[in-house]
Amino acid sequence: MNNITDWEGYLAKFEEVLAQETPQPPYDEPMYMDYFKLNRSRQKRWLKTAKINEELTKAIKEIDEKQTWFLITEPWCGDAAHNAPFIYMMSQLNPKIDLKIVWRDTEPFMIDDYLTNGGKAIPKLVIRDENGKDLHTWGPRPEECQVLFTKLKEENADFEKQKVELQNWYNANKGEDIQKEFFELITN
């Protein structure tokens, strides 16, 4: 499938977009490109500074059957900039976990089977066993952050306000909620 890559392919996509003299849509819009660059910077920061807590590390290392983690995302996604690094780091804790990045906006559209409130919200993680059976889904953001996002939408907050408030939430939370939620997923 041409819409699936690995983590290195995901990171390479950022560099590919930046190297284009005339970027493809949506990156041809200055606002998108600026946000994309910010996402790249945020993601790099999380990859350098984030740590997976001991309780979750232990739970992930105890997974004893092969799993494929399909992370449906796109480089322009702000929530992915904050969550994808944690998902990547978690997947690296156990060789039985194979992380695959699935492009949301490229056929075939896996996201169509994993909508959030009828929308194609990302990032969305689908965890499958070695027989292809769905074990868990997660996303597009930690529950508390989703509550904030829903509140902002109900208030008709503009994109700038949404972006700043969600960024502040992620910075203050430091990945704690995504780790708590993954611990619950994995251990239940």
Structure characterization notes:
By secondary structure, this protein is an alpha+beta fold. Helix content is 50%, strand content 14%. The chain has seven helices and five strands, in the order βαααβαβββααα. The chain has a five-stranded mixed sheet. It is globular. The protein starts with a strand and ends with a helix. The model has no long low-confidence stretch (mean pLDDT 95).
How much helical structure, as a percent, in the residues?
40-55%
CATH topology: Glutaredoxin
Helix- and strand-based class? alpha+beta
- Give the name of the CATH architecture: 3-Layer(aba) Sandwich
Q: Note the quaternary state here.
A: single chain
Q: State the separation between the terminal residues, measured CA to CA.
A: 32 Å
CATH first level: which class?
Alpha Beta
Portion in beta strands: 5-15%
Mean pLDDT across every amino acid position: 95
Brief digest:
This protein has 188 residues and is an alpha+beta fold.
Label this structure with key terms:
alpha+beta; 188 residues; five-stranded mixed β-sheet; single chain; Glutaredoxin; globular
SSE layout:
Elements: E1 4-5, H1 7-19, H2 30-49, H3 54-61, E2 67-73, H4 78-91, E3 97-103, E4 124-129, E5 134-138, H5 143-154, H6 159-173, H7 176-187
Parallel strand pairs: 2-3
Antiparallel strand pairs: 1-3, 2-4, 4-5
